[in-house]
Structures are given as C-alpha cells and as structure tokens.
Design a protein that fits this description.
This protein is of the alpha+beta class. It is built from five helices and ten strands; from the N terminus they run αααβββββββαβββα. It has a four-stranded mixed sheet. The structure holds zinc ion (ZN).
C-alpha cells in the first residue's frame, strides 16, 4: 500500500486506540467502545483508499477530541473517590441514577459502588474516680503527635460496640467493658460515622499498642490542648458537663 494511503490509516488507527482508551476513562461499556472504534477504523480505511483524506482526518481529530473530553471530565471528578473497573468482573463502571443519586455501577453484573460511610468505634474510658480519661498520642497520620480517644475502623460485620472494645485493646491495651452509647457523629470532611461509647471505669493502666506513640489517663481539667478531632473534643466536653451536672444534683 503506498505511503499516501498508509498514513491516514495509521492516523485513524491511532485516534481509534485513543478513543477506545478515552471511552474506558468515561466508563462506557466495552461493547459500545468497540463498535465506535470498529466504525471509525473501517470508515477511516475506506476514506483513505478512496482518497477522501478529509474524512480520515476528521475521524482522527474526533478521536483526539474525545480523549481530551475524557481528560476534562476526569479533572472535574477530583475530590470524589472514583473507581474505573468492577471488582467482580473487570468491566468499566459507569454512572447510573439511583433515585436521584448518581452511583458508579457495573453494566455487566450487579455491582454498585455505593460509597457508604465507614463506621468508626470510639471509646471514652474513665478512671475509677471518674476524674480522668484515657487519651492516645497518635503515632500515625492523620494528625500524628496529637491526642484522641482510642478508636478505629470497624471490621466487616462488626458491631461498633465491639469495634470500640477491640480498638481499646489494640491501641491502649485495656480490656474494657462498654457502659453505654454516648454519641453518634459524622466526621467533618470525611465519609465516616463515628460511634462513641462510654466504657465502665477501669483500674487498669493503659500502655501504647498499635498506632499509639503514647497513652495515659489525663485529668479532665488538664486535657492536652492538641486534641486531634473536633468530634472527640465535643464528646469529651459533653460528657464532662454531664458529670458536673450529676455531681451538682
Ligand atoms: Zn461487574
């Protein structure tokens, strides 16, 4: 095939490959992408053979523009956690409307990326006299070096109460008993639901375990001023007020 025919064919092939890749970035089903690419390739080759190079050039330009559009769209998607492929069957995920909520869903199987909040179990552990609570100096990011209540992410199918108890065991090596639910908060700026529990007062002494640089009982009137999370500060402060109100009764 002379070079004059080969060049537009190569151009269209390259643009088709780019278009196919762009289609996967945009989450188009693979069948749709293959159909478009096959159509572009055949039209491109036919136009090159019939020396209608403008058509080949138009198809090539469309592929590049399509790719550009996919880049622009992905740029505007930043700030949201995005997945491109189904973890079940590897098909490209695409957005689907679920009662007004756009979710990434798989066109080939039943997988939907719901992006539900992560559940966090947190424990407020008082000393026997009720005048001190256990705080952890964080050994890992985020907020390494700052203080917080012991807590962490739930394991699959775990009740948040069990999470709070387990995390107390892992982070401050205390075998606590849960007294009652204290509060439920959402994490500001994070996709998490924090479930705070009050532990029964304990005479055990905490010692740092996983993720903790140090830990100790802190008197309620001498809490460190660098407590990491506003929700923890709110819960501690509300419980402190409750204790004061109880003493004044
Ligand atoms: Zn799937």
């Amino acid at each position: 095939m002379p070079m004059i025919f080969l060049l537009p064919c190569l151009l269209v092939a390259a643009a088709s490959a780019l278009g196919f890749y762009a289609g996967s970035r945009l989450g188009l089903p693979s069948r749709a992408r293959l159909t478009v690419v096959a159509f572009a390739l055949l039209t491109g080759i036919a136009s090159a053979l019939s020396q209608q190079f403008e058509l080949a050039l138009t198809i090539a330009l469309s592929g590049v523009l399509f790719y550009g559009a996919s880049l622009v769209k992905s740029k505007f998607r930043t700030g949201r956690l995005q997945y491109r492929f189904c973890p079940n069957c590897s098909s490209s995920l695409h957005e689907r409307d679920f009662e007004g909520h756009m979710k990434l869903a798989c066109p080939s199987c039943s997988f939907v990326y719901w992006n539900n909040p992560i559940v966090v179990g947190v424990a407020l552990i008082p000393s026997m006299d009720g005048k001190s609570i256990v705080l952890v100096e964080r050994g890992v990011e985020p907020k390494a070096g700052m203080y917080c209540l012991p807590g962490g992410f739930g394991e699959p199918f775990e009740h948040p109460k069990v999470t709070a108890k387990r995390e107390a065991g892992e982070e401050v090596k205390l075998d606590i008993e849960i007294d009652r639910l204290l509060a439920i908060h959402t994490a500001p700026g994070g996709n998490q639901v924090l479930v705070f529990y009050l532990a029964k007062p304990t005479a055990q002494l905490p010692s740092p375990g996983s993720d903790a640089k140090s830990c100790a009982f802190f008197p309620l009137d001498q809490l460190p001023d660098n407590i990491a999370f506003t929700t923890h500060i709110e819960v501690i402060s509300a419980w402190k007020q409750e204790c004061i109100a109880g003493q004044n009764k």
